[in-house]
Design goal:
The protein contains two helices and twelve strands, in the order βββββαβββββββα. The strands form two sheets. A seven-stranded antiparallel sheet has the order 6-7-8-9-10-11-12, covered by helices on one side. The longest helix has 21 residues.
Length: 247
């Protein structure tokens, strides 16, 4: 006896059902209940004619944390075995895995991250934009993206300190604003040259600002690091994917 299509039965599976007697005209009830006909497997004898023994199989899909497999069960005696194992794997919808919500690495990360923040947002602001928030002590970090995923605004709010910078999917610069107490500052930086530490990028900053550039660069470094560690890394993303060549 053999199984159609070309699939061999495991050695431990009995090819003939002990509940079926030779010449029995019995028909077999579906198992599991209400499985459609396309799930039925018909065994053939050595001459190629159908036998009265049939099995039903139930495919169980793999998920992110568990393997998939197929359960084969005889309709008549209930004897069963599992086979056709599939390794654990993500099943991506449009942008996210349908099981764990991790972004699809083959998609544009700007849109994948937007889809994740939309689903797991802390709140939506008055402009209908999606906001992710992380707090550490008295400090608050926020990432806000528009509902098209094309622009991201990153903010840091701390004691007497405020940092705000934004970047776009179609632009190669980062426009950053920093306030230390009553002192404001601005720096327009290239995605391709931003690195940690970022202090060398502030070498041309006006000397009258004194140590301001050190605080500015340190806060920029810290904010990039927090966003990478707390938001992007758990999702399998990184700043390099967003155009930051050296991060």
């Amino acid at each position: 006896m053999h199984l159609l299509p070309s699939k061999q039965l495991p050695a431990h599976y009995k090819p003939r059902c002990p509940a079926v007697k030779s010449g029995s005209p019995d028909s077999y009830p579906a198992y599991p209940h209400n499985l459609p006909a396309e799930y039925r497997i018909q065994y053939l004898d050595q001459s190629g004619f159908p036998t009265r023994q049939q099995s039903w199989f139930l495919p169980l899909a793999a998920t992110c944390s568990s393997q998939g497999y197929t359960v084969y069960t005889c309709q008549k005696c209930g004897s069963s075995y599992t086979d056709s194992y599939v390794a654990p794997q993500h099943d991506y919808g449009k942008y996210l895995c349908i099981y764990c919500d991790k972004p699809d690495p083959t998609m544009d990360p700007y849109y994948s991250l937007m889809a994740w923040i939309e689903k797991h947002q802390a709140y939506t602001n008055e402009n209908g934009e999606y906001v992710w928030v992380y707090r550490s002590g008295n400090a608050e970090y926020k990432v806000t993206c528009n509902n098209m995923g094309s622009r991201y605004i990153v903010e840091y709010n701390g004691k007497e300190e405020f940092l705000n910078f934004c970047f776009y999917n179609d632009a190669d610069f980062v426009d950053s604003y920093y306030h230390l107490g009553e002192i404001p500052g601005r720096a327009i930086l290239s995605k391709e040259t931003i690195t940690i530490p970022s202090l060398p990028l502030f070498n041309g900053y006006p000397t009258e600002y004194g140590n301001f550039k050190y605080s500015f660069s340190n806060r920029l470094d810290d904010t990039f690091s927090v966003i990478q560690r707390e938001l992007l890394s758990p999702l399998g993303l990184n700043l390099h994917m967003f155009g930051f060549k050296l991060l």
